[in-house]
């Protein structure tokens, strides 16, 4: 976990989508380690993970099992987080699905499902968090994107379309929410070697080719994303909004 401590994150009310596995689990642990009051939602049972964090840090996170593509369930889980921890002041839209697909194989149902999980849930989480952050007087929203659309990667066109849309939405919401002292930023990881990626997509040849494109010749682990997320959540970035922070070992360049 990152060594930096952010005093303003202690006792902060944080809500994370997909916080029980992969990058999301590392983020959940990162905020729990800061002393934040964390609630996270996930489809798979993460009770054991939450219990492990409670034992390790003495700061139990609230796990809510649910599907973010069910907007009603998403909103209900955020209300549950508010009841437990007070108004949400940090929202992290992390949950996503990069299932591979070819254009000619896409059905309307698959299109709708991909957009629901990779974009629609982000918007409605932001909408639901807004009045809570207005009540608190401030807030930070972090929308996870990916460098995949910047690279023009083939193999998952709906996913990359949603990644690009997340950046556009982030900029518009930053403008809309700014007068209420609510910041909205995007965070775009590179190829992070979660267990899912290792199980489904990583090959020795493919990984070597990707690392060759990085400036830094090391693979990315979920923990490498946590520091940037904590920074965007904290008051250390209090005048940063509408931006996209890339953590990819130096594959793409921005600016």
UniProtKB/TrEMBL annotation:
Keywords assigned: Oxidoreductase
CDD domains named among the record's database cross-references: SDR_c (cd05233)
Single GO MF descriptor: oxidoreductase activity
Pfam families: adh_short_C2
InterPro entries, sorted: KR_dom, NAD(P)-bd_dom_sf, SDR_fam
SMART domains membership: PKS_KR
Domain Ketoreductase: 12-191
PANTHER family: OXIDOREDUCTASE, SHORT-CHAIN DEHYDROGENASE/REDUCTASE FAMILY (AFU_ORTHOLOGUE AFUA_5G02870), SHORT-CHAIN DEHYDROGENASE_REDUCTASE FAMILY PROTEIN
Family: Belongs to the short-chain dehydrogenases/reductases (SDR) family.
Protein name: Short chain dehydrogenase
């Amino acid at each position: 976990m990152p060594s930096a401590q952010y005093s303003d994150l202690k006792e902060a009310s944080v809500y994370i989508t997909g916080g029980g596995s992969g990058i999301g689990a590392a983020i959940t642990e990162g905020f729990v380690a800061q002393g934040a009051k964390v609630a996270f939602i996930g489809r798979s049972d993460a009770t054991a993970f939450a219990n492990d964090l409670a034992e390790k840090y003495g700061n139990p996170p609230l796990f809510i099992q649910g599907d973010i593509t069910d907007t009603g369930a998403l909103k209900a889980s955020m209300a549950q987080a508010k009841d437990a921890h007070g108004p949400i002041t940090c929202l992290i839209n992390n949950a996503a699905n990069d299932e591979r697909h070819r254009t000619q194989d896409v059905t309307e149902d698959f299109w709708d499902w991909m957009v629901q999980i990779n974009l629609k849930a982000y918007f409605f989480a932001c909408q639901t968090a807004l009045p809570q952050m207005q009540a608190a007087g401030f807030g930070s929203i972090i929308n996870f994107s990916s460098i995949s659309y910047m690279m023009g990667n083939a193999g998952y066109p709906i996913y990359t379309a949603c990644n690009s849309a997340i950046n556009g939405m982030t900029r518009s919401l930053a403008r809309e929410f700014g007068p209420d002292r609510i910041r909205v930023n995007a965070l775009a990881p590179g190829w992070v070697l979660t267990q899912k990626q290792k199980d489904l997509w990583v090959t020795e040849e493919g990984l070597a080719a990707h690392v060759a494109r990085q400036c830094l010749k090391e693979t990315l682990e979920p923990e490498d994303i946590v520091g940037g997320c904590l920074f965007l959540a904290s008051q250390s970035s209090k005048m940063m909004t509408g931006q996209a922070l890339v953590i990819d070992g130096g594959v793409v360049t921005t600016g």
